[in-house]
Prior knowledge:
single chain, about 270 residues, mainly alpha, 3-stranded mixed sheet
Amino acid sequence: MKKNIWLSLTAVILCTACSTVGLTGRKQLNMISEAEILSASQTEYQSYMKSAKLSTDAQATAVVKNVAQRIASAAMNYLRASGQEADIANYAWEFSLVEDNERNAFCMPGGKVVVYTGMLNLIGNGTGRDDELAAVIGHEVGHAIAKHGNERASQQLLANMGSTVLGAVVANKSEATQQAVAIAYGLGAQYGALLPFSRKQELEADYIGIVLATLAGYDASAAVTLWQKMEAASTSTTAEFMSTHPSSTTRISQLQKDIPKVKATYKGTYGKL
């Protein structure tokens, strides 16, 4: 009987807590209100920034902020043009370059973008620097506007629910939401660009990232050279089926398929949405 109740309640939640990712049309689980996810994310972001060391390299910081601002503007223009104006109010953009050797970056729900110096060092100062940085930031902002954090936190929340406490958790999720967000974003050692999103979410963020980069006037093809650099620098031997992330080879292959279509659809639209 308890099993049947649990299955029935789960089915109800899955049917009533779905939303759609705008740029891809994929259905996703969304059990947590925007107000809750933004509040929890802001708390975690502020906690992280207390221990983070901001870069003192004014030139590098300016590069990051310039690219990030253009990507953010492209994201807001897209939301506006696609009838998602209500979501725009949820973003209070901040852009930071943090001293850390990890090849990482992240964008929290609400538009808090952080790039690590390790990522900037990997990209280097070549002619495609800004385009590759746009691919990184576009990918992370893609996670945010696709509400992957909410989706993963919702999945975590659902996984934590036992049949005997399901009703109480659904009725008052605040503390549970805080815990789910912390786990979803892998706070601590797992924080960064390579957050533990699912392979499906990662490939979706790759796609949205090249759309945003193109809308912002950057060359989406740089996403391929970025991942080639990431692949060359990687020391991981974890098989893809054991990882939350697609392999670099898989990402590069999918990007090479998507980039021509994205360019054909969005190139030349910078500032026109």
